[in-house]
Amino acid sequence: MKIASCMFLLLCALTAHAVTDAPVTDARIVAEQAYDEATSHYETNKSNVDSAWQFACACFDLADLSTKNSTRAAYAQEGIDASRAALKLRPNSAAAHYYLGMNIAQLAQTKTLGALSLVRQMETQWNIAVKLDRHVDFAGPDRNLGLLYRDAPGAPLSIGSRVDALQHLLTAVALNPEYPENHLNLIESQIKWGQIAEAQRECDKYVKTIPQARKNLTGPKWAGPWHDWDIRLQEIQSKLRRHGS
After folding, report:
1. Global pTM?
2. Does the pLDDT of residue 135 top 70, yes or no?
3. Using H for helix, E for strand and C for coil, what is the string for 61-119?
4. d(C-alpha 37, C-alpha 84), whole Å
5. How far apart are the first and last CA of the chain?
6. From CA 112, how far away is CA 198, in angstroms rounded?
7. CA–CA distance, 223 with 73 (Å, rounded to integer)
8. Is residue 27 scored above 90 in pLDDT?
Protein backbone atom coordinates (compact mmCIF):
# COMPACT_ATOMS: atom_id res chain seq x y z
CA MET A 1 0.00 0.00 0.00
CA LYS A 2 2.85 2.36 0.84
CA ILE A 3 4.50 1.81 -2.54
CA ALA A 4 1.18 2.29 -4.33
CA SER A 5 0.57 5.56 -2.48
CA CYS A 6 4.02 6.86 -3.40
CA MET A 7 3.49 5.99 -7.04
CA PHE A 8 0.09 7.70 -7.10
CA LEU A 9 1.52 10.92 -5.67
CA LEU A 10 4.41 10.76 -8.11
CA LEU A 11 2.14 10.36 -11.11
CA CYS A 12 -0.14 13.17 -9.97
CA ALA A 13 2.86 15.49 -9.69
CA LEU A 14 4.16 14.56 -13.12
CA THR A 15 0.86 14.91 -14.94
CA ALA A 16 -0.27 18.14 -13.32
CA HIS A 17 -0.08 20.59 -16.21
CA ALA A 18 -0.19 23.78 -14.19
CA VAL A 19 -3.95 24.03 -13.74
CA THR A 20 -4.10 23.33 -10.00
CA ASP A 21 -6.99 25.26 -8.40
CA ALA A 22 -7.62 27.08 -11.68
CA PRO A 23 -11.13 27.52 -13.07
CA VAL A 24 -11.42 24.03 -14.51
CA THR A 25 -14.30 24.91 -16.82
CA ASP A 26 -12.29 27.61 -18.60
CA ALA A 27 -9.24 25.35 -18.84
CA ARG A 28 -11.35 22.55 -20.28
CA ILE A 29 -12.87 24.84 -22.91
CA VAL A 30 -9.39 25.88 -24.06
CA ALA A 31 -8.17 22.27 -24.02
CA GLU A 32 -11.19 21.00 -25.94
CA GLN A 33 -10.75 23.66 -28.61
CA ALA A 34 -7.08 22.76 -28.96
CA TYR A 35 -7.98 19.07 -29.12
CA ASP A 36 -10.58 19.64 -31.85
CA GLU A 37 -8.12 21.67 -33.92
CA ALA A 38 -5.32 19.13 -33.41
CA THR A 39 -7.67 16.27 -34.32
CA SER A 40 -8.65 17.98 -37.55
CA HIS A 41 -5.02 18.59 -38.54
CA TYR A 42 -3.96 15.08 -37.60
CA GLU A 43 -6.80 13.30 -39.40
CA THR A 44 -5.95 15.10 -42.64
CA ASN A 45 -2.16 14.80 -42.18
CA LYS A 46 -1.55 11.29 -40.88
CA SER A 47 1.91 11.26 -42.39
CA ASN A 48 2.91 14.57 -40.79
CA VAL A 49 5.05 14.05 -37.68
CA ASP A 50 4.34 17.49 -36.25
CA SER A 51 0.58 17.00 -36.57
CA ALA A 52 0.91 13.68 -34.75
CA TRP A 53 2.84 14.93 -31.72
CA GLN A 54 0.74 18.09 -31.51
CA PHE A 55 -2.34 15.88 -31.35
CA ALA A 56 -0.61 13.83 -28.63
CA CYS A 57 0.00 17.04 -26.71
CA ALA A 58 -3.69 17.96 -26.97
CA CYS A 59 -4.63 14.47 -25.77
CA PHE A 60 -2.40 14.89 -22.74
CA ASP A 61 -3.98 18.21 -21.83
CA LEU A 62 -7.52 16.79 -21.94
CA ALA A 63 -6.48 13.66 -20.07
CA ASP A 64 -4.99 15.90 -17.40
CA LEU A 65 -8.34 17.63 -16.91
CA SER A 66 -10.35 14.40 -16.79
CA THR A 67 -11.93 13.39 -13.49
CA LYS A 68 -12.85 9.85 -14.55
CA ASN A 69 -10.18 7.21 -15.00
CA SER A 70 -11.91 5.82 -18.08
CA THR A 71 -11.88 9.21 -19.81
CA ARG A 72 -8.30 9.94 -18.76
CA ALA A 73 -7.18 6.55 -20.05
CA ALA A 74 -9.00 7.01 -23.36
CA TYR A 75 -7.35 10.36 -24.12
CA ALA A 76 -3.99 9.07 -22.93
CA GLN A 77 -4.21 6.03 -25.20
CA GLU A 78 -5.00 8.29 -28.16
CA GLY A 79 -1.91 10.31 -27.33
CA ILE A 80 0.22 7.20 -26.97
CA ASP A 81 -0.96 5.86 -30.33
CA ALA A 82 -0.31 9.19 -32.07
CA SER A 83 3.16 9.48 -30.54
CA ARG A 84 4.08 5.98 -31.63
CA ALA A 85 2.76 6.69 -35.12
CA ALA A 86 4.97 9.77 -35.24
CA LEU A 87 7.99 7.74 -34.14
CA LYS A 88 7.43 5.24 -36.92
CA LEU A 89 7.73 8.14 -39.34
CA ARG A 90 10.59 9.88 -37.52
CA PRO A 91 12.29 7.83 -34.79
CA ASN A 92 14.43 10.81 -33.76
CA SER A 93 11.51 13.15 -33.01
CA ALA A 94 12.21 14.53 -29.54
CA ALA A 95 8.66 15.87 -29.23
CA ALA A 96 7.13 12.49 -30.07
CA HIS A 97 9.26 10.73 -27.45
CA TYR A 98 8.44 13.43 -24.92
CA TYR A 99 4.66 13.30 -25.40
CA LEU A 100 4.73 9.52 -25.49
CA GLY A 101 6.19 9.66 -22.00
CA MET A 102 3.66 12.29 -20.93
CA ASN A 103 0.68 10.25 -22.07
CA ILE A 104 2.09 7.08 -20.53
CA ALA A 105 2.19 9.06 -17.27
CA GLN A 106 -1.49 9.89 -17.67
CA LEU A 107 -2.32 6.25 -18.37
CA ALA A 108 -0.29 5.14 -15.35
CA GLN A 109 -2.44 7.34 -13.12
CA THR A 110 -5.40 5.09 -13.92
CA LYS A 111 -3.56 1.87 -13.01
CA THR A 112 -3.45 0.21 -9.62
CA LEU A 113 -1.13 -2.53 -10.80
CA GLY A 114 1.63 -2.14 -13.34
CA ALA A 115 2.27 1.55 -12.69
CA LEU A 116 5.91 0.93 -11.80
CA SER A 117 6.66 -0.61 -15.20
CA LEU A 118 5.02 2.39 -16.85
CA VAL A 119 7.21 4.72 -14.79
CA ARG A 120 10.26 3.04 -16.28
CA GLN A 121 8.79 3.55 -19.76
CA MET A 122 8.34 7.23 -18.99
CA GLU A 123 11.96 7.45 -17.85
CA THR A 124 13.12 5.81 -21.07
CA GLN A 125 11.16 8.15 -23.34
CA TRP A 126 12.26 11.31 -21.53
CA ASN A 127 15.88 10.23 -21.50
CA ILE A 128 15.69 9.74 -25.26
CA ALA A 129 14.14 13.20 -25.62
CA VAL A 130 16.96 14.66 -23.51
CA LYS A 131 19.50 13.29 -25.98
CA LEU A 132 17.57 14.59 -28.99
CA ASP A 133 16.39 18.04 -27.89
CA ARG A 134 16.37 19.17 -24.27
CA HIS A 135 14.39 22.32 -25.09
CA VAL A 136 11.14 20.52 -25.96
CA ASP A 137 8.28 22.08 -23.99
CA PHE A 138 10.60 24.51 -22.21
CA ALA A 139 13.06 21.82 -21.06
CA GLY A 140 10.21 19.41 -20.43
CA PRO A 141 12.30 16.21 -20.54
CA ASP A 142 14.68 17.42 -17.82
CA ARG A 143 11.82 18.94 -15.83
CA ASN A 144 9.90 15.68 -15.78
CA LEU A 145 12.92 13.53 -15.08
CA GLY A 146 13.71 15.80 -12.14
CA LEU A 147 10.25 15.24 -10.68
CA LEU A 148 10.39 11.55 -11.50
CA TYR A 149 13.66 11.00 -9.65
CA ARG A 150 12.56 13.29 -6.81
CA ASP A 151 9.25 11.59 -6.05
CA ALA A 152 9.75 7.96 -7.05
CA PRO A 153 10.68 5.48 -4.31
CA GLY A 154 14.42 4.87 -4.17
CA ALA A 155 16.31 1.67 -4.89
CA PRO A 156 15.63 -1.18 -4.85
CA LEU A 157 11.91 -0.44 -5.17
CA SER A 158 12.17 2.11 -7.95
CA ILE A 159 14.37 4.77 -9.56
CA GLY A 160 14.20 7.64 -7.07
CA SER A 161 17.42 9.61 -6.61
CA ARG A 162 17.91 13.06 -5.07
CA VAL A 163 21.22 13.50 -6.90
CA ASP A 164 19.67 12.80 -10.29
CA ALA A 165 16.59 14.86 -9.44
CA LEU A 166 18.63 17.93 -8.56
CA GLN A 167 20.77 17.60 -11.67
CA HIS A 168 17.76 17.58 -14.00
CA LEU A 169 15.87 20.32 -12.15
CA LEU A 170 18.91 22.59 -12.28
CA THR A 171 19.38 21.78 -15.97
CA ALA A 172 15.77 22.68 -16.76
CA VAL A 173 16.23 26.11 -15.19
CA ALA A 174 19.53 26.63 -17.00
CA LEU A 175 18.05 25.64 -20.35
CA ASN A 176 14.80 27.59 -20.15
CA PRO A 177 14.91 30.13 -17.30
CA GLU A 178 12.00 32.01 -18.88
CA TYR A 179 9.57 29.22 -17.95
CA PRO A 180 8.12 29.57 -14.41
CA GLU A 181 7.47 25.86 -13.90
CA ASN A 182 11.19 25.11 -14.04
CA HIS A 183 12.00 27.56 -11.24
CA LEU A 184 9.06 26.53 -9.07
CA ASN A 185 9.88 22.82 -9.26
CA LEU A 186 13.47 23.51 -8.25
CA ILE A 187 12.52 25.84 -5.37
CA GLU A 188 9.88 23.45 -4.03
CA SER A 189 12.40 20.61 -4.16
CA GLN A 190 15.07 22.61 -2.38
CA ILE A 191 12.62 23.45 0.41
CA LYS A 192 11.60 19.80 0.61
CA TRP A 193 15.25 18.82 0.99
CA GLY A 194 15.94 21.49 3.61
CA GLN A 195 18.11 23.57 1.27
CA ILE A 196 16.58 26.82 2.45
CA ALA A 197 19.37 29.24 1.51
CA GLU A 198 19.49 27.81 -2.00
CA ALA A 199 15.70 27.99 -2.27
CA GLN A 200 15.69 31.64 -1.22
CA ARG A 201 18.32 32.55 -3.81
CA GLU A 202 16.42 30.70 -6.52
CA CYS A 203 13.17 32.35 -5.48
CA ASP A 204 14.76 35.80 -5.71
CA LYS A 205 15.99 34.96 -9.22
CA TYR A 206 12.57 33.66 -10.25
CA VAL A 207 10.71 36.75 -9.06
CA LYS A 208 12.90 38.90 -11.32
CA THR A 209 11.88 36.82 -14.38
CA ILE A 210 8.12 37.11 -13.80
CA PRO A 211 7.41 40.46 -15.55
CA GLN A 212 8.97 39.31 -18.81
CA ALA A 213 7.42 35.85 -18.52
CA ARG A 214 3.97 37.41 -18.19
CA LYS A 215 4.58 39.27 -21.45
CA ASN A 216 5.77 36.15 -23.27
CA LEU A 217 3.28 33.63 -21.88
CA THR A 218 -0.03 35.34 -22.43
CA GLY A 219 -3.49 34.47 -23.74
CA PRO A 220 -6.27 32.04 -22.74
CA LYS A 221 -4.05 28.93 -22.77
CA TRP A 222 -1.79 30.46 -20.12
CA ALA A 223 -4.50 31.64 -17.71
CA GLY A 224 -4.62 28.31 -15.87
CA PRO A 225 -0.86 27.91 -15.58
CA TRP A 226 -0.38 31.45 -14.25
CA HIS A 227 -3.11 30.88 -11.68
CA ASP A 228 -1.25 27.81 -10.47
CA TRP A 229 2.19 29.42 -10.58
CA ASP A 230 1.07 32.44 -8.59
CA ILE A 231 -0.44 30.25 -5.87
CA ARG A 232 2.69 28.12 -5.69
CA LEU A 233 4.90 31.21 -5.41
CA GLN A 234 2.78 32.50 -2.51
CA GLU A 235 3.13 29.14 -0.75
CA ILE A 236 6.88 29.11 -1.36
CA GLN A 237 7.32 32.64 0.00
CA SER A 238 5.24 31.75 3.05
CA LYS A 239 7.43 28.71 3.78
CA LEU A 240 10.62 30.69 3.30
CA ARG A 241 9.39 33.40 5.69
CA ARG A 242 8.65 30.75 8.31
CA HIS A 243 12.11 29.27 7.92
CA GLY A 244 13.65 32.72 8.16
CA SER A 245 11.80 33.74 11.32
Report:
1. 0.89
2. yes
3. HHHHCCCCHHHHHHHHHHHHHHHHHHHHHCCCCHHHHHHHHHHHHHHHHCCCCCHHHHH
4. 20
5. 37
6. 37
7. 25
8. no
